[in-house]
Design a protein that fits this description.
- This protein starts with a helix and ends in a 6-residue tail after the last helix.
- The protein has helices at 2-19, 49-59, 61-81, 102-105, 121-187, 193-228, 251-261, 263-284, 325-390, 396-431; strands at 44-47, 87-93, 107-116, 235-238, 290-299, 308-315.
- The strands form two sheets. The chain has a four-stranded antiparallel sheet with strand order 2-3-5-6, with no helix packed on it. A two-stranded parallel sheet has the order 1-4.
- The protein has 437 residues and is an alpha+beta fold.
- A hairpin with an 8-residue loop joins strand 5 (290-299) and strand 6.
- It folds into two domains: 1-30; 37-85 and 120-285 and 325-431, Outer membrane efflux proteins (OEP) (Up-down Bundle), CATH 1.20.1600.
Length: 437
Amino acid sequence: MAQILAKVGKFVFCAVMIIGWGHPALAATDLPAKTAPAASPATALRLGLDDAVALFLRQNLDLLMAKFGIESAKGQQITAKLFPNPTVSIGTLSAYTQGRNIGNSGQLFGQVQQLFELAGKRGYRIESAAFGTQSVEAAFEDAVRQLTFTVKDAYNRTQLAQRRLALAEENRDRFSRILDVNTIRFKKGYIAEVDLIRIRLQFIDFQSQVIQSIQEGDSARGDLRQLLRVSPEMGLELTSEFDYKRVDPDINRLRTVALDARPDVRVKRALMSQREADLKLAKAYRIPDVTVGGGYAVQGSKGPDNQGQVALNLGLPLPLFNRNQGGIMQAEVAVQAAEADLNKTLNQVENEVDVAHKNLLQSRRLVEAFLGGVLDDARSTFTIVERAYERGGATILDLLDAARTSRTIQQNYFEALFNYQRHVIQLESAVGQEISL
């Protein structure tokens, strides 16, 4: 019987909502009292925060494209290890005097030449290519670092939208019940029409917040799906808790870790080492390389007594004019630029860690201030005023003020919690590794 009465009550209330605009006393809203639930997807993907990051790393195309740069750098490293190819030459020589021709006095000779690099050029080239590969690998890790922050932030924004929606629905449902009761009280003459209108307007305000929260949630989930390359038909169920977990990191240790392990710092260090190897290679080019060759010649029937001849030769360029002066100057400038870039990055990392740490401390203070009693006070005040209003001990203005205050405090708490979590992952990104909670 109770269920039947409840269904009848809901039917009557919906009817009042539909026809209420025809009468100023009964008009409530042309918006539905309950937001129609979205059609549930056929399948839902349950994801914790770590699961979302792992899925992103597996499926993100940008990272896969960046990974191809690693393979290219490894190819350059293989090329640097290769020796120069030998040169093979074959020729003929003949005299056309005193009845000689190519048939009776021709000479056929073959020769093989090999270039030998001196002054450690090959070793410097291998060293430079190795540092180039390290730089590309570190750049890939840095791309992972930055995009991981994007994924975590999108995940938290989706959770924030869910909490906002839950709060808006709670306030809407609460004022829906208050509107039901006061509609009956108005009919019996217990309250003025202006009080009913104020309640109705507040109900519509909460209903609009529900719709706005749904839109924000859809947008946040759309961004997260796009990052994870998940179809819009696939539902997302976020399983990580959107709660406060205190983080108290050691700033001195974080600075040390960031300067040693952050990927973009390792990129700059590897580039500087590569430029230094390039400078050593440029200086090594001042010493010319040696070409060693050997050959064998076969002569015709009317040649000298020795029909076969062996030849050995040695080629050495004389470094009279070109001693790679320009290449050395360019390599020196590249080393200076790489050193300046490294110092700039180190300074930037130190400042990022410091700013992220300070923001974390301030946002933590704000969250703990809410959890210190303000949040509970706002909720309990709304309940106390609502009960007092039902007994006639509070005015409608007191009720509306308590409702708005409670909503504002809770929304501000959600924003503070979201900012705190964002500052945590910003500090993780600035350091280059996760911070244990």
